[in-house]
Specification:
Layout: H1 4-33, H2 41-70, H3 76-103, H4 118-149, E1 153-157, E2 163-166, H5 168-174, H6 178-181, H7 193-206, E3 212-219, E4 225-236, E5 242-251, H8 253-306, H9 311-337, E6 346-349, H10 350-364, E7 369-374, E8 381-384, H11 386-402, E9 408-419, E10 433-442, H12 449-452, H13 472-482, E11 486-492, E12 496-504, E13 529-533, H14 537-549, E14 553-557, H15 560-569, E15 574-578, H16 586-596, E16 602-606, H17 610-615, E17 625-627, H18 632-645
Parallel strand pairs: 7-9, 13-14, 13-15, 15-16, 16-17
Antiparallel strand pairs: 1-2, 1-5, 3-4, 4-5, 6-8, 9-10, 10-12, 11-12
Helix pairs in contact: 1-2, 2-3, 8-9, 9-13, 10-11, 11-13, 15-16
Length: 655
């Protein structure tokens, strides 16, 4: 009869044998796969212990089974076999213990079966990998910092144009925070033709083009236009598959403006050089020609005296003398133009000069011309030759008369102006300061930009052959340059022309102080909405930039129809509009807006003087008016004054 302890002993040895065998297999298999069966002694010794223990418990289980089966005790031979195997297991255990001390890593985390020396190599490799990862992370952090803080806008998008990356430069350029831009389509930055152009460029990138550089107009978040230079390139993975598009954008409006100023400065320099060369030539010719004219005139008079009885001869000589007088006047203009004529500068009252010219013109200008003079309310004294001041006014007035063959209005005004150096294309460029100003405006044929660019050049004329010498305006230029003054021109074909003449004021203790409102610093807009209506895109961009930088919200429109639509979508706080525009005029636009909001402040701007616009009934004389060209400070101060007083302008604009 088999007892219960014998059965439990048998079962226990079978279970222990199975567990040790499983542990041995779990150790040997990865060691073999790692190719360390012959080199990793510690792992092999560990597996050998479990193997020996498994065999030993198997032998004990076999002996127990035989004892249960036959009913007698264990034989001497079987007992010795089990004892010897247990001794072998003990030897393996001692061997394992000596290896453990030699390795010194048995209790290290994750290093039970790592051979000596290999652990050092693994540690070194791990350290190198850690350092490499740290360097890569530092590189990525540096690159991210460069991208984030660069002045240029750096944008990432999907191949279809959905924005995925947006740095601080993009926020500054386009006005959208990263949270608003990421996830939206890049079409948010475009409008009209720009959207189509952008889609075509992205299609070219998807088709395989490596890089594109171009300039285009984009739209700021506030609706203002931007001039931007783009560099677009594909983003590919290691397999060469397009996974995105990178865009680098830069605002080039300031660079374009600087280039335009440089071009204008070079053009003025070239013009001055041309005029200097022509002046030297004309001066030499004029001096020699005067000698010949003196001979011709005197001998003509002699012949006239000696032909008292011959009326026909005297009539012929009168024609000769008339031609000689014309030649004398022409020579005088040449000498004035070349600054070679003798001048006698003295203090000149411009109001008196305007009155004298008015008296002369009333007799000669013609009944078809309405002549209006607007003297300054305060004395204006300049240092100049009185005859030359009259010559300037007469030349400009006669040019205006010739530009109005079918009649019109000629306005001569006298007042003061502050020059800051920001004026558009003065001829020549004056120093900054306060000047006396003469304005000669007409409602004539006007000039194209090409003609206006050459009017001060000597011998340039648009009149038919025989009706003009081309020296009138160049003579004016020479007189003003000699007196330290300047002149500017504003003209539109089919509308009219305004010349502005600037002469240095003579300081007088009794001079009346200026009553114009002055501001120490330009007032801020404080988020007020300005509806800007200007049909000249370049000027509209300048005005938008000035007002946006001053804290205004700007809605820029090119004509009256666009302005009415924009005001419906977002009512404005003040209207800043050009007076004369294609289609709807500034006056008519103000009327339409006043029907919606009678108290809406309106500031008009124009290149024509307020005197001309008032006398020709384009505008009333007492409305808020800003004369082009104007500086940023002048615009902001005037707009602030209009928006603060908020006058009811319904009565100021004609029905």
């Amino acid at each position: 009869m088999t007892s219960m302890p014998d059965q439990l002993y048998l079962l226990g040895n079978i279970v222990i044998m199975t567990a040790y065998a499983a542990i041995m297999v779990a150790i040997v298999v990865p060691v073999v796969r790692a190719g360390q069966l012959l080199t990793n002694k510690l792992a092999v010794a560990t597996a050998l212990i479990f193997f020996s223990c498994a065999v030993g418990h198997g032998m004990h289980a076999l002996l127990s089974y035989r004892s249960i089966l036959h009913g007698h005790g264990t034989s001497s031979a079987s007992a010795w076999s089990a004892a010897l195997w247990d001794a072998f297991t003990a030897v393996v255990g001692i061997y394992y213990w000596t290896l453990r001390r030699g390795y010194g890593v048995l209790l290290d985390k994750g290093a039970m079966y790592v051979e000596p020396g290999r652990q050092d190599r693994i540690d070194a490799a791990g350290e190198r990998e850690r350092l490499a990862r740290a360097a890569a992370e530092n590189h990525r952090a540096t690159l991210a910092a460069v991208v984030e803080h660069t002045a240029d806008a750096i944008i990432g998008s999907t191949p279809d144009g959905v924005i995925t990356a947006w740095n601080a430069g993009a926020e500054r350029l386009f006005g959208y925070p990263a949270g608003e831009a990421i996830g939206r389509h890049a079409d948010v930055l475009t409008s009209g033709e720009g959207t189509t152009e952008q889609a075509e460029l992205m299609a070219r990138i998807r088709a395989g083009e490596r890089s594109l550089s171009y300039e285009a107009q984009r739209v700021h978040k506030d609706g203002s236009p931007l001039e931007v230079a783009f560099t677009v390139a594909p983003i590919e993975d290691r397999a060469g598959t397009l996974i995105g598009i990178s865009v680098v954008a830069r605002d080039i409006a300031a660079a374009k403006e600087a280039a335009e100023r440089q071009r204008a400065m070079q053009e003025r320099t070239h013009q001055a050089q041309r005029m200097e060369s022509l002046g030297k030539l004309a001066g030499g010719v004029a001096h020699d020609f005067n000698n010949l004219l003196a001979i011709i005139v005197n001998y003509t008079d002699f012949a006239a005296q000696q032909s008292q009885g011959d009326a026909a001869v005297r009539a012929d000589l009168a024609h000769v003398r008339t031609a000689a007088d014309r030649a004398i006047n022409l020579t005088r203009q040449l000498l004035t133009f070349t600054r070679g004529d003798t001048i006698q500068p003295q203090d000149v009252d411009l109001n008196l000069a305007v009155a004298e010219v008015q008296t002369m013109l009333e007799r000669t200008i013609g009944e078809h011309i309405t002549l209006i003079t607007v003297p300054s309310p305060q004395p204006l004294t300049v240092r100049a030759d009185p005859g030359q001041v009259q010559q300037v006014l007469l030349n400009l007035a006669l040019n205006a008369r010739d530009a109005m063959p079918d009649g019109g209005t000629l306005v001569i005004e006298a007042n003061t102006a502050e020059l800051t150096g920001a004026e558009i294309d003065p001829q020549p460029r004056p120093a900054t300061g306060r000047y006396a100003r003469l304005l000669v405006s007409d409602t004539g044929e006007g000039m194209s930009p090409d003609v206006a660019a050459h009017v001060f050049e000597p011998f340039y004329t648009t009149k038919p052959r025989g009706q003009g010498t081309g020296l009138g305006l160049s003579t004016v230029y020479g007189i003003l340059a000699e007196a330290g003054g300047s002149i500017t021109l504003y003209s539109e074909a089919g509308v009219g022309t305004t010349f502005r003449v600037y002469l240095p004021l003579v300081t007088a203790s009794g001079a009346a102080p200026s009553t114009a409102p002055r501001h120490d610093t330009p007032p801020r807009g404080d988020g007020r909405t300005v509806l800007v209506v200007e049909d000249e895109p370049a000027l509209a961009r300048v005005v938008t930039r000035i007002l946006s930088n001053a804290g205004y919200h700007v809605m820029a429109c090119a004509n009256g129809e666009e302005a009415l639509t924009a005001d419906e979508q977002r009512p404005c706080d003040v209207l800043l509009t050009d007076v004369i525009m294609p289609g709807m005029s500034g006056r008519r636009l103000a009327e339409c807006l006043h029907e919606r909001r009678p108290g809406l402040p309106v500031l008009y701007m124009s290149g024509y003087s307020n005197g001309l616009l008032g006398t020709t009934h384009v505008l009333d004389e007492d409305i808020a008016f800003l004369e082009k060209p104007f500086t940023a400070d002048q615009l902001l101060c005037k707009l602030h004054d209009v928006g603060t007083t908020r006058p009811d302008l319904d009565d100021a604009v004609h029905a």
